[in-house]
Design brief:
This protein is an alpha+beta fold. It has helices spanning 3-11, 40-47, 49-60, 67-94, 150-154, 158-163, 172-181, 184-203, 206-238; strands at 20-22, 32-35, 100-104, 109-112, 117-120, 123-128, 131-136. The strands form two sheets. A five-stranded antiparallel β-sheet has the order 1-2-3-4-5, with no helix packed on it. Strands 6-7 form a two-stranded antiparallel sheet. α3 (49-60) packs antiparallel against α9 (206-238). The longest helix has 33 residues, at 206-238. The N and C termini lie far apart (49 Å).
Length: 241
């Protein structure tokens, strides 16, 4: 085998690394507990709100024309911020709606603990836009909220369960470094700035454009910090299940 042919296989990561195993207590003895994604509404209305608010300000402020119009915009954003603070406090207190699953390998079933729904891990061949794929024969009504395909979980063996990492959030600096490397910061500045630059150059508000860049960087940093904090909080709570 040539070196060139080996490179693709070396780049493949283990899909099990995307699973987050929760420490199991007697209540779920003999089962594998997995943490899924948090609620989409929490991600949108709590985690990503700072970025959304800054982008709203950046796109709308060139069209306010008067100090009165800008003050109205700021008043609206202040109201939004008040609601955001309330939602953030609720998320910290009551949780982010993160999905939790228990997998019973002995009985070949998976349960969505949030909705108390359970289904068999039996697979069925389905037809999709990208071809055929294996999926649960009877999908959960609540949907699938893990970062791996259902086939990966359905085909788990006891030996593979031992290799699944315990859910342990990274340190804050490592979390932010990872987010910088995955391109989310670059994507935000490139995608958002294309229309933003045009709007501000046409409006002659170049100074506001520069200020928006600083605001976006601060908002993105706050977003990632909040993302890390809520994940750490969820992990601590779920370890007590």
């Amino acid at each position: 085998m040539t070196t060139a042919s080996m490179e693709p296989s070396q780049a493949v990561t283990n899909p099990l690394d995307s699973l987050k195993q929760i420490r199991n207590h007697n209540r779920y003895a003999g089962q594998l507990l997995l943490a899924g994604n948090r609620s989409a509404l929490t991600s949108l209305l709590v985690v990503w709100f700072p970025v959304i608010a800054v982008l709203t300000y950046g796109f709308v402020v060139p069209f306010t024309y008067t100090a009165w119009g800008e003050n109205n915009l700021l008043l609206i954003l202040y109201c939004w911020t008040g609601l955001w603070l309330a939602l953030t406090a609720a998320s910290v207190t009551f949780g982010t709606g993160r999905h939790v699953y228990s997998v019973d390998l002995a009985n070949r079933t998976i349960s969505h603990l949030n909705s108390e729904q359970s289904t068999s891990l039996a697979l069925e061949l389905r037809q999709g836009s990208e071809g055929t794929y294996l999926d649960l024969k009877t999908p959960l009504d609540s949907g699938w909220h893990l970062d791996v395909d259902s086939r990966i979980v359905a085909e788990l063996t006891p030996a593979e369960v031992q290799s699944i990492r315990r859910w342990q959030p990274a340190k804050l600096k490592d979390h932010i470094r990872k987010k910088v490397k995955d391109g989310s910061l670059t994507t935000l500045f490139v995608v958002a700035n294309i229309p933003l630059v045009v709007i501000h150059l046409v409006s002659g508000t170049f100074g506001l454009l520069i200020m928006c860049q600083i605001y976006m960087l601060a908002a993105w940093t706050l977003t990632q910090t909040l993302d890390w904090f809520l994940e750490k909080r969820d992990q601590q709570v779920m370890e007590q299940l």
